[in-house]
Predict the structure.
Amino acid sequence: MSTATGTATLTMAGAINAGLRRAMEDDDRVVVMGEDVGKLGGVYRVTQGLQETFGDRRVMDTPLAESGILGTAVGLAFAGYRPVCEIQFDGFIYPAFDQIVSQVARMHSRTRGAVKMPLTIRVPWAGGIGAAEHHSDSPEALFTHTSGLRVVSVSDPPDAYAVIREAIASDDPVLYFEPKRRYHVKGEVDLDAAPGAVRAMDRARVVAPGNDVTVVAYGGLVQTALAAATAAQSEGISIEVIDLRSLSPIDFDTVVASVERTGRLVVVHEASQTGGLAAELCTAVTERCFYSLEHAPVRVTGYDIPFPPAKLEKFHLPDMDRILDGVDRALDRPNSLQDRGW
Amino acid sequence: MKAELLEAIPGITPYVSLIDADGHRDSTGAFAELVADIGPAELLGLYRDMVIIRRIDTEATALQRQGELGLWPPLLGQEAAQIGSARALAADDFVFSSYRENGVAWVRGVPPTDLLVTWRGVAQSGWDPFIHRMATPQVIIGAQALHATGYALGMQLKQSDSVAITYFGDGATSEGDVSEALVFAASYAAPVVFFCQNNHWAISEPVRVQSRTALVDRAVGFGMPGIQVDGNDVLAVMAVTRSALDRARRGEGPTFIEAVTYRMGPHTTADDPTRYRPPADLAEWAAKDPLARVAAYLRGAGALDAAAEAEVTAAADAVAAELRAGCLAMPDLPPDALFDHVYAEPHPRIDEQRAAQQAYLRMFQ
C-alpha cells in the first residue's frame, strides 16, 4: 500500500498513522518499535499496516520491557537510525524513565554534540476514556522538567499529522503525547502539506480568537476549552483559546501576546496541579507581562491525587463548567472560590 | 509449551584457561586454536598494553591524590580482561562500556589525556564515539548493555559485519537494564557480546549479594551460550572473545562471557576497600596477577629479555608523562559552555538563559 496523497478525512489515530507511513517512506532510517506495534498494529491501531509494508525489522514488536525499548533505541540512534518508540500507555513510561532522563536527554550534551538522539517517543496519553489504573496518567511535567527533551502534544488530526512528521525529522529527542480521548475524532488532513518555515511543533496556536480572557489548554482539553469559549459567548464573554502544543519549550511569545490584550489568563490541564505546567506558565506570564494583568493568573487542573477510578474521573478532570468557573475567577465574576478571595 | 519455543538450549562453557598463573601455556583444544596466531611476539604486544594501562592507572591515581583529578576508577587487576577482549575486536566493531574500561579505550586508540577529561571535571566525555568506535563511559550501571544491543539491532538491519560489545561488572548483572538487554539480544539474535568482568566487588558488596550462582549460568536462562574464562589470562580472554565475535558475525546471536577477575584496588579513589575486603584476598589474587604470568611465559620463550623489559617500561613512562602533561594543560571551558549542546537544534529557553548568564557575568567586568 503506498501513501495516499491529497486531502483525506482521517481520525487522529489515522492521521498519526499516515504521518508515520510518510516518514518511513521518506527516510529509511526511521524505524518503529514498541509492544504490539507490528502484527497487531498497536492497541490503538496507530501503527496499523506499517509492518506489512516495511517489514518486521523496521516495525519491531519488542519484548515487554519499556526501559529496553528506550535503551535499544539509544543504540539504534548510535547506529544512525531515527527510532519512533511507542510506550503503550502513559502509565507504562516510568520503567523507561531512567533511559529517557539519563540517556536520551543527555547523550547529545554528554558527547559534546557528537551523538544525536533523534528519537520520537509516542505516548498514548491522559484520561477521559474510563480506563483502568495506569492508563490515564498525565506525566508530561516530569519530562518538561528534564533538559534535553522536547515535549509536544497534539489535539486534532491535521495537527497530529504535521507534528509527528516534524518530531521524527527533529534531531532532538521528542516526546509526542497523543490524547487517547481524541483518537477517533475526524478531520481533514492535507497529506501533501509541506513543512512550514516555522515548525508547528514549536509554536502554540490560537484556535479561537477572543478579547476578554486567554485560556491556554493542550491535548484533550483543547476541545473542552473551545466548548467553554462557545458557551461563554452566550453571556457576552469573549475567550481566546490557545492550544499550547509545545510543552517544552513553551511558546511564551504567543501566550504573552494574547494576555497583553486580554489581561487575564486561565491555564487548564488534566495533570495534577503542584509543580505542573500551569505553574510554569502562570509564573512566566507574570514575569513577562505583569503590568498587563488585570487579575492573578488562574489554574484549572486535575487535583493532586493519583489518577482516580473510572467512575470518579469526571470529578477529577477539568470539564467545560470547571473551565468556565476558572474564567469567572479571572474576570472577578461570582465563582466557586470567591469566599477565599481568589 | 509450543514446539516453536523449544529451541536447543545453548550451553555453558566452564572456566577457559590457556596460560596459568605460573606462565604455562596450554596449546590444546578449540579455544587454544582460536589464538594459535598469537605467538611470543604478539603476546609481548599484549603484555606491553597491560603494562601501559597499569602505568596509566598509577599515574591517574597520583594525579587524583595531587588534586588534579576529582576522581579516578582504577582497573588494577583487570588488565588481562580488558586487553584480551579489546584486542579481539575488529576495527569496525563498537564498544559500549562502563567507566572502568580505560584499558579498552587505550586499545581503541583513545588518547590517554582524553580519558581524564571526565575525571578532571572539564566535560562529561573526552572523545568522539564515532572516531574510536567506543561510546564514552557510562556511569549509570548497566544502561550501556541496552545501547549495545540496540546498536547491534541496527547492524543487523544494515546487514553489517560490525559487532557490538558491552562491558559491565558483576554488580550490573542485578540491574534490570542488563536483563532486558539479554532478552532483546536473544529474541532478535542480535550481534552483541556481553562481556561481564566479575571483579568480585560492587563497591563494598561481594558478588554473592548479586547472585547465588555463577554469573555465567544466567546465560542459559536468557537463551544464549555462556562462557566463563580466567579473566586474568589475557590469551584465554582473547580466545573466548574471538569465539563470541565469530558467532555474532555468523548471525548466530549473542554470547555472555563471564571473565573472572579481581579488583585489586578501590572502587574509585574515593573508596576505602580495607573496610570490607578480607586481607587474604589480595594475597590470593596477587599470585594470579595477569601481567606476571605473561612475563613468566615470555621469559621462558626468550621473548622478554632485559632490553625488551626496558623498552616496555620506557613506553609506559612516556605515556604517563604525556598523560600528566596533558592533564595539567587541559583548558577549562568558558562559563557559557554550560549551554552548549543541550539541544541539537535552537532552543529559546537555552538562548534566553545563556543571554541572562552573560548579562549577569558582565556585572563583574
